Amino acid sequence: MTSSKSMVSMTNSSDTRDDSSLIGASSNSSRSPEVVLSVNHVGKYFQLPTEQASGLKQAFINWTKGIKGYKKQQVLNDITFDVHRGDFFGIVGRNGSGKSTLLKIISGIYVPDAGTVNVKGKLVPFIELGVGFNPELTGRENVFLNGALLGFTREEIEDMYDDIVDFAELDDFMDQKLKNYSSGMQVRLAFSVAIKAQGDVLVLDEVLAVGDEAFQQKCDDYFAEVKKDPNKTVILVTHSMDSVKKYCNRAILIKNGDVIVNGNTEEAANQYTLENLQVEKKETQLRKGEYADGLNSRCPLLKVKPLSSQICKSSDTFRFEVEYEFNEAEDFYLAIALHDLRRGGVAFDTGEKRLKYTEHGHRTVEFELPLNLFNNGDFRLVASLRTLSKKNTEITDMVAFTNDANSCAFAIRDSRNKDYALINDRVMQISQVGSPR
User: Fold this and answer.
1) Where is this region: Disordered (predicted)?
2) Which terminus of the chain is more exposed, N or C, with fewer CB under 10 A?
3) From CA 42, how far away is CA 91, in angstroms rounded?
4) How many whole angstroms separate alpha carbon 134 and alpha carbon 32?
């Protein structure tokens, strides 16, 4: 365990403010908004048990042998960032990156093993839907219970109560027991308590897609208003890059317990997309005579590699190369297909016999793919090496193909594009001919 001191401190802004802070306020209006959350060099690890001592004797034996009985799993390494008043701040990262652990440290649920977290004002965490709700109590009683767990006094909850109930649209049900609510009603009540609580910093963990379509639209309108309020601060953890780009003015991307993008929303969202597209390649030791999936002794190497950035706009031309090794004397073909990962299916295929080659050995061929035809999406280029069929020279037989690990993925992200259809309507349109008959 590190010897450096760690702490989470929270101060209420109403307790620390004095009259002097109001003097000359207008002269400070040009300054950056104050920092309401400061995370400084935060680290966190967990101890995972590896040996179980069934009694004192076994525990003593393990101790004499130097067996600790656990291994250390470092979850967060050295996390540092600031959130200013009025920020809609996004925290993104793949599953297992450390987002939830960081959020629980910010919320005071976990204590960091290194570093400090300072919160100015009242922080309202909303990490899991319905945590702290009791099904045997009424909706009204649960509002007061949940508010108390969030640190509000009864008087404060009474002041917020009408707003909470109005937003949840459950006025006729507040005196019924929570166990009689539908799951959608419970979600609406829990979410309303969180976002309508009069806190200074609201922390939301993957909770934007709650309730039915009408309630989601209501939440969307609420967050659009929050985004405009310079005194409202929201920290959002989500896997939805559309939400990050729509709401957040700043964001960080966490990978393996480290911040790899800090501040730029567009960069964080695009890098997250790239992390998801890239296949995790496990280092496997192949024995002599063994080949990766899709390869063999005839073609021991076939790989598609990007030459351009893997986050593109429709106006870009995506450049890539195919590396192969084929030593047989006969002519051969490379077939390249573009798979649509978001919508499914093959968006484009070169055909089996179009790209014919006579250069044998270990070679590399470069290609270009114009992207102006496509809307936003996630794509993968796969290749196969083929030779003419001995039985029918009109067709080809596949010798080798690229698997997910040695294919090439890329994404199109262009604000001018739509996300639904594959084909860009700036390139192809359906035109009316004549008048209705």
Assistant:
1) 1-30
2) C
3) 15
4) 42
Task: Render 111-150 in DSSP notation, one character per residue.
Answer: --SEEEEEEES-EEEE-STTTT--TTSBHHHHHHHHHHHT
| Run of H or E including 146 | helix 139-149
Residue in the block written with tokens 């995790």? 280
Upper half-sphere CA count for residue 185 (Cβ side, 13 Å): 18
Segment (H or E) for 383: strand 377-388
Rounded to whole angstroms, the Cα distance separating 158 from 156 reads 5
Cβ neighbors of 436 (< 8 A, separation 6 or more) are none
Tell me the whole-structure pTM to 2 decimals: 0.71
Say how far apart CA 367 and CA 357 lie, in whole Å: 14
pLDDT by residue, tens only, the chain of 437 residues: 344 444 444 444 444 444 433 334 444 444 567 899 999 999 998 877 666 656 676 666 666 766 666 678 889 999 999 999 999 999 999 888 888 899 889 988 899 999 999 999 888 887 766 667 888 999 999 999 888 887 788 998 899 899 999 988 899 999 999 999 987 888 888 888 877 877 788 888 876 666 677 777 888 888 888 888 888 899 988 888 888 888 899 999 999 899 998 878 888 988 888 888 875 555 455 566 688 889 999 999 999 999 999 999 999 999 999 999 999 999 999 999 999 998 999 999 999 888 999 999 999 999 999 999 999 999 999 999 999 998 888 889 999 999 988 999 999 999 899 889 999 999 998 999 999 98
Instruction: Give the span between the Cα atoms of 355 and 98, in whole angstroms.
Output: 46
Amino acid sitting at position 154 = R
The CA R_g of the chain, rounded to the nearest whole Å, is: 29
Q: Given 3.30.360.10, 3.90.1230.10, 2.70.50.60, 2.60.40.2080, which CATH number is that of 301-412?
A: 2.70.50.60
